[in-house]
Amino acid sequence: MRHSFTIATSSFLVVALFLVATGCGTNEESEELKALKDVQITEYEGKDLSSIGAFRENSIKGPQQVDIENYVLKVTGLVVDPAEYIYDDILDDYEHYEKVVTLDCVEGWSATILWEGMLIRELIEESAPLDSANTIIFHAYDGYTTSFPIEYIMENDILMAYKMNGVTMPPERGYPFQLVAESKWGYKWIKWITEIELSDDVDYEGYWERRGYSNSGDLDERSF
Ligand SMILES: Nc1nc2c(c(=O)[nH]1)N[C@H]1C(S)=C(S)[C@@H](COP(=O)(O)O)O[C@H]1N2
Ligand SMILES: [Mo]
């Protein structure tokens, strides 16, 4: 008995040490994020904002470092004119919008941020979707995907953000671009976007959707 107790205790210790070593359950921040805290804004039009550091980092493959010199954003699939854009095209050629929106993760935390970016529908209209396109699938640098009915993106002024709380989006948060999928659960807010694919597959399921999360991702519905 004594012997098995020792084994159970030591395996518990190994698991606990592993969790501490990998940073699980904690809210570790890089030096870069700490520095951004001093320059980001904390209030906007009377609304208190969360800190960029308030997010819990739980991306499927950890933070991605996108090499902006080689970065291209593609619009593909069921369109008349497939297109490719570099980072500066998105910042310079489209009207700039800002919005305070709250991201709610299914884990129970949320963050209210001033997002700055451009309207994705302007980009999609340029490629002229075919009539058969009814779904938009977003792809990311880490292999993550998620999708939406085309009307959600075209009719709701949905932003693709490049700034948070007045500063350029840091790598952990999705640099260069994160989708501001308002009224949807956090797993719909895809970071490190690389491709916007027009599709006719209404049943397409992204990374978390394939693992049981709701495909609509609507905040007012159950997520699982
Ligand atoms: N590319 C990519 N985007 C992603 C994720 C991811 O793992 N990879 N995680 C999603 C989830 S579950 C949430 S809650 C939000 C915010 O996650 P963060 O706190 O890790 O930034 O990003 C979403 N976008
Ligand atoms: Mo999440």
How would you describe the overall organization of this protein?
The chain is of the alpha+beta class and 224 residues long. The protein has 5 helices and 12 strands. It has helices at residues 2-22, 31-39, 87-92, 120-127, 150-155, and strands at residues 43-44, 47-48, 73-77, 83-85, 97-104, 110-119, 135-140, 145-149, 159-164, 167-168, 178-180, 193-199. The protein is globular. Residues 55-60, 105, 140, 142, 144, 173, 186-187, 189-192 line the site of the ligand Nc1nc2c(c(=O)[nH]1)N[C@H]1C(S)=C(S)[C@@H](COP(=O)(O)O)O[C@H]1N2.
Q: Bound small molecules, which ones?
A: the ligand Nc1nc2c(c(=O)[nH]1)N[C@H]1C(S)=C(S)[C@@H](COP(=O)(O)O)O[C@H]1N2, molybdenum atom
Q: Give the helix level as a range of percent.
A: 10-25%
Name the structural class: alpha+beta
- Total separate domains: 1
The topology string of helices and strands comes to HHEEEEHEEHEEHEEEE
Distance between the termini: 42 Å
The tally of beta strands, per DSSP, is: 12
Rounded radius of gyration (Å): 20 Å
**Beta-strand share of residues:** 25-35%
Number of helices: 5
